[in-house]
Amino acid sequence: MAGRGRGRGRGQMTFNLEDVGIGRGDSLPPTTFKPSPLFPAMSVQPVPLQTGEEVEYMLALKQELRAATKNLPFYIRRAANKRDVDRYSDKYQSGEPKDSTIEWSPDWSRLPKELCIKVRKPQGKSEFWRFVRGIQIMYDTLEKKEEAVNSEEEEDDEKKKTNQEEEQAEEEDYEEDFEEDTDYIMSYFDNGEEFGGDSDENMDEATY
Amino acid sequence: MRGNRRSLRHLSQNSTNSDVGPPTHQRVRSAGSPSCIIQTLWAKKPIKKMTAQEVRLCGLLLQEHFGEVVERIGTHLLRGGAQNLRTIANETNTPLDLVKKSLCVLVQHGVCDFGSGRRGPGSPVEYRGNCERVLRILRYPRYIYTAKTLYGDTGELIVEEVLQRGHMTMSNTVKTVADRLTHNMEEGRSMEYSEVVSSFSKLVETHFLQRCPPVAETATAAPSATPATHRTPASVTPPTAESNPDCYKLPPVTLTGRGKRRRSSDDGEEPGGVKKAKMDSESCGDEGIYWQVNFERFHQHFRDQAIISAVASKLDQTSSEIVRTMLRMSEVTTTPTAAYTQPLSANEIFRSLPPNYSISRPILDQYLSLLVDDPMEFVGKSGDSGGGMYVVNLHRALANLARATLESVVQERFGSRSARIFRLLLRKRHLEQKQVEDFAMIPAKEAKDMLYTLLSENLVQLQEIPKTPDHAPSRTFYLYTVNQLPTARLLLQHCYKTVANLIERRLFETKENKRLLEKSQRIEAILASLQASGAEPEQLTEVEEMITAPERQQLEALRHHINKLDSTENQVDETIFLLESYIISTKSK
């Protein structure tokens, strides 16, 4: 019928091949059996990038902005996954915020009411927290009494004034470790992730 | 080839790329009950349909700037249209608190806006993402650099702070910028608030900064019940920044003070100082007036710059100065989407030329007529009064710039002869195969090859014109054609894909060398601390030697790659800007 015998080995088609531009006797490119490669070889190389002061300044700006946004409160990180076993140091090493308060204070009048996050004390442990708070109040009153006593002594005896200051300074020194209600100094809980500069000086020698 | 298709006599687009197409209105999911006649117009507002490439790029940008949680929420919003809080939390499997935090961040930066739901004022609040706003993040360095060139370091820091925080009050901005500037100055000097305030007011006067639009009352945390219910639904459309008449009015507060230098010894400062600072911020009196960056104004500025540099490279410096003067004079009288500026008479132009460009009046007239006669049609003549009325053809200029971009892309990817064919088709619209070969003066075989390559890349389309009603292939004309607008859209999507690929590659490179980067950062921190505490040079060199030479080389190569990738992103963004401006200008004509 019409269209047969157009050329040996060529299929029949409903339109005139010559109109498209494939003349008689032309060989077509080989048929492909697989998808084109992911990174085909480029026949032309791309034009080199622009250079100049302006370009470099904008580059520096871009990198600075990227680094700065990581430190803004808008960068939200997921809470770190709990490790398999609860460790004692977890109580004293809270890097991530445990509760869900927002770290910056937006203007709540410009946001829908439902987005306002309020911090609530955990309900189940209310008795325990009340107990702890009671102890805290007792401690505060004792402190105030001590300070009142100290100030009376100051008024009485001028010579002991320097001693008192030392004492208070010592007390303040103790405060640093005493705050978190633990017997250990806070650097006890460092798990060695920060680099200690001195200890690696003698790397050549073998350690036993 | 479409074979036996018996369709249509009208000219149809044969584009097969599903990514490209004019944006369609999003069909609003119907509210269900027929009794609910009053639907809030906010939910019905048509939004641009997102393409896959745009969503992917937005996701990467959100991840880089705000973290993975915000990225997940943001992508979900962009893909899914308007949704309420519970839906988002359920569909993204994120705890409700994290969703709330992310939405706060997104709203703060203008990426997401909210309104009452589809079923009227009683339904839960719905949130909607704004893809364009996320794509602007790519252009932040350009905005900041422009502010620097126009208003110096102070302007640069103001724009940078406002961009990073989304929106800020004026007092907050002034304080932060003054502190930063003071930090960089030498000891003993500090920055006056008044200088920063003057830069701020200059930015507001020239409309680079604008007030944030007031929030629709029905959905906020402080609803005023009675006035809201009396309003008709027609007024619940979210106000734009421009609809506020006070948009560019500075708040009536005076800020006095100097920037504070932040020293390391200040950390243990007495609480009295902190209290004093708090009282200062409360007494400032411009609470509730937030300022944001006006991107449209910056885009106008970029567009003007592009036109001026095009004139400078096509003609000469003086012509570009004339065009710059004309654009400067029409800054305030032209709307951003106008196709051409208001007519300016030659007398006005002559008077407004910058003083160091003293050309005589006849020379100016000659230059103007040269500009008018130029085939790029930057400037047109609209009348003869006042020595000749001239306009700058903004839309035409943008179209020409976009066309030049397309041609250059074809040239760089396929060679100059393919570019010749492409330009030919742009000018002559529809040509047959034989005519292409003749006009382009390229041998038949090669012309055919090039045409098919361009066709397979979808840069060139095939148009069938049947001679007979039965559309028989032997009696049909097949014409090659190039349509500028769809091709520009196609290239724009390619650009988005390119930037997304660049970001992914950069993340990959960083991840591969993470260990090395961390080590080098630690070493730098140690060096800094050692130097601050006054160590000897031997100690410093010992510490420096902890990075071995091959590691140093690796680090150097890594930095070089990352700089290149970043620089490329900036450059592709310039092309994105041109193409986007052209498409928006064409749509609004």
Automatic annotation (TrEMBL), chain A:
- Sorted alphabetically, which keywords does the UniProt record give? Nucleus
Q: Where is this region: Disordered?
A: 1-21, 146-208
Question: What's an example GO cellular component term for this entry?
Answer: RNA polymerase III complex
Q: Name one Pfam family in it.
A: RNA_pol_3_Rpc31
Q: Write out the GO biological process terms.
A: transcription by RNA polymerase III
The main location class comes to nucleus
Q: Where in the cell is it found?
A: Nucleus
> Where is this chain compositionally biased, Acidic residues type?
165-183, 191-208
- Protein family (similarity comment): Belongs to the eukaryotic RPC7 RNA polymerase subunit family.
What this chain does, per the record?
DNA-dependent RNA polymerase catalyzes the transcription of DNA into RNA using the four ribonucleoside triphosphates as substrates. Specific peripheric component of RNA polymerase III which synthesizes small RNAs, such as 5S rRNA and tRNAs.
Q: How does it assemble?
A: Component of the RNA polymerase III (Pol III) complex.
Instruction: Name the chain's protein.
Output: DNA-directed RNA polymerase III subunit
UniProtKB/TrEMBL annotation, chain B:
A Gene Ontology MF term for this entry?
Answer: single-stranded DNA binding
Extract the Pfam families matched here: HTH_9 (PF08221), RNA_pol_Rpc82 (PF05645), RPC3_helical (PF20912), WHD_POLR3C (PF22536)
Polar residues bias: where?
10-19
- Would you tell me the Gene Ontology cellular component terms? RNA polymerase III complex
Localization in the cell? Nucleus
Q: Where is this region: Disordered?
A: 1-32, 219-281
Q: Which residues form the DNA-directed RNA polymerase III subunit RPC3 winged-helix domain?
A: 406-482
Sorted alphabetically, which keywords does the UniProt record give? Answer: DNA-directed RNA polymerase, Nucleus, Transcription
Name the InterPro entries for this protein.
POLR3C_WHD, RNA_pol_III_RPC82-rel_HTH, RNA_pol_III_Rpc82_C, RPC3, WH-like_DNA-bd_sf
Q: Pinpoint the RNA polymerase III Rpc82 C -terminal domain residues.
A: 198-401
Coarse class of the primary localization is: nucleus
Its GO biological process annotations read: DNA-templated transcription
Ranges for domain RNA polymerase III subunit RPC82-related helix-turn-helix: 57-115
Q: Where is the composition biased (Low complexity)?
A: 219-234
Gene3D superfamilies for this protein: 6.10.140.1450, Winged helix-like DNA-binding domain superfamily/Winged helix DNA-binding domain
How is the quaternary structure described?
Component of the RNA polymerase III (Pol III) complex consisting of 17 subunits.
Question: What family does the database annotate?
Answer: Belongs to the eukaryotic RPC3/POLR3C RNA polymerase subunit family.
Task performed by this protein: DNA-dependent RNA polymerase catalyzes the transcription of DNA into RNA using the four ribonucleoside triphosphates as substrates. Specific core component of RNA polymerase III which synthesizes small RNAs, such as 5S rRNA and tRNAs.
- PANTHER family in the record: DNA-DIRECTED RNA POLYMERASE III SUBUNIT RPC3, RNA POLYMERASE III DNA DIRECTED -RELATED
Q: What is this protein called?
A: DNA-directed RNA polymerase III subunit RPC3
Q: Name the species this protein comes from.
A: Esox lucius
